[in-house]
Structure prediction request, 135 residues.
Amino acid sequence: MQKISDSAVIVGSLRVKGGGRAPFALQGTVARTDTVAKNLFKLPKGAILVGIAVGGTVASNAGTTAIVDVGKTGNDNFFVAAADVKAAGAGDATNPKATKNAGAQGEIQVTGKYTETGTASNTGGPWTVTAYFLK
Prediction:
C-alpha cells in the first residue's frame, strides 16, 4: 500500500480521490490479411467503455478504399464502422452509441476486420485497436 495523499492510497489498482476509477486498456492488431473478423480481446463483464482507437503507422495502398471495422461476435462493426486506414492509417474512431453499457451483459468478444476495394494493396498496417474502459 502506497499513500499518495491524506485520503487516497494505491492498493492493487489506483483509487482516485472521490471514488473515481482508474482506466484500463486492451489491445489487438488487425493486418491486411485479416479479411474475416478475428478475435482481438475480451472486454470484461461490467466494463464501462470509454472509447476505441484504431491506429497505425503505415497506411494501406489499396486502390480505392481500405477500412478497419471493430465489432463483437455477430456484429462486425458494432464499435467502429469503416475506420479509413488508406489516407492516414490512424485515428480515434469510436462509435459513441456503442460505448453505453457495453460490458453490462457479461464479457464481450471484440473482433477486428480489414476490407479493401479496388487494386489490391501490398503495403499497410498492421493497425492497433485499443479499447479504453473503466472497471
